[in-house]
Structure formats: C-alpha cells, structure tokens
Amino acid sequence: MENDIKIAVVHGSEEVNLEVPNNMGLNLMEFLKANDYEQIEGTCGGMALCASCHVRVLEVSPALDEQSDDEYAILETLPVVYDNSRLSCQIKLNTNLKSIKILIPE
Ligand code: FES
Questions:
Q1: Residues 78, 61: Cα–Cα separation, whole Å
Q2: Given 3-state DSSP classes, what are the helix, strand and coil percentages for the chain, each rounded to the nearest 5?
Q3: Is the CB of 49 inside a 6 Å radius of any atom of ligand 1?
Q4: With a 6 A CB cut-off, is 44 part of the ligand 1 pocket?
Q5: Which segments of the chain does DSSP mark as H helices, in order?
Q6: Is residue 88 over pLDDT 90?
Q7: Which tens digits make up the pLDDT trace of 8-34?
Q8: What's the CA-to-centroid distance between 52 and ligand 1, angstroms?
Q9: 104 with 55: CB under 8 angstroms?
Q10: 89 Cβ closer than 6 Å to some ligand 1 atom
Q11: What DSSP state is assigned to residue 88?
C-alpha cells in the first residue's frame, strides 16, 4: 500500500522483501524481532545501550537522520563497525521513511 514502508533484509545469501505500515509506531529492531530475526537481540529494549541490534544500511530512501552521539558511542564498542553501521532500534518506521535495505551482520 501507499503508506507502507518497504524493508529488504539481507542475511547470508538470502534477501527477503517485507512491508510494514508507517503508522505502527515501531522501530526497525522491533520489526526485525517480530519477524523472527533471532540475530537481532535488542537486549536493552531500544535504549541505544547494547548494540545487539546492529545492522548495516545498504540503501535507504529518503536518507536517515544522523546518528546521535549515544548511537555512535555504542556502535564504537563493537569489534567491527562499518561506515553504514546503525542501531536498528534507532531507526523509526514512520512517515519519514519510504524504503530501506539492510544487511544483518553474521
Ligand atoms: S536494542 Fe540495544 S542498542 Fe538497540
């Protein structure tokens, strides 16, 4: 539907295309957990404290907001971090977002 956000999830060799309405008040971590991506633990419940919801953003429309200082600091605690690393709990699935393609790191 017109108000749905397209979400492509790459994990290993698999790519899955999903959609979610933009008015459900979810963040991407919650959406991934609801879709049984067990690699996304979300241990801190979306408080930007644990980095267990780390994803890499491959494509996005329109652009995401800049990382907050807190998000940046937590990502830096990971053993490997990439230019496109983000905390999925900090990505809001709202009317600002049209589509996103992410990779779940191994
Ligand atoms: S759920 Fe803990 S940082 Fe995202």
A1: 26
A2: 15, 30, 50
A3: yes
A4: yes
A5: 28-34, 69-75
A6: yes
A7: 999 999 999 999 999 999 999 999 999
A8: 6
A9: yes
A10: yes
A11: G
Report the CATH number at residue 72.
3.10.20.30
Tokens representing residue 50 in the block: 């644990």
Q: Calculate the alpha carbon distances from 40 to 15, 53, 60 in Å.
A: 16, 5, 19
Shortest-distance atom of ligand 1 to CA 46: 1
Which residue, chain included where needed, has tokens 């709990």?
Answer: 89
Record the tokens describing residue 71, joined without a space.
């998000």
Q: Is any atom of ligand 1 closer than 6 Å to the C-beta of 29? A: yes
Looking at the structure of the chain, the number of domains it has is 1
Report the nearest atom of ligand 1 relative to the CA of 51.
3
Give the range of the structural domain holding residue 94, as residue numbers without chain letter.
4-103
Closest alpha carbon to 21 in 34, 36, 48, 3 = 3
pLDDT at 1: 66
**Distance (Å, rounded) from C-alpha 7 to C-alpha 76?**
25
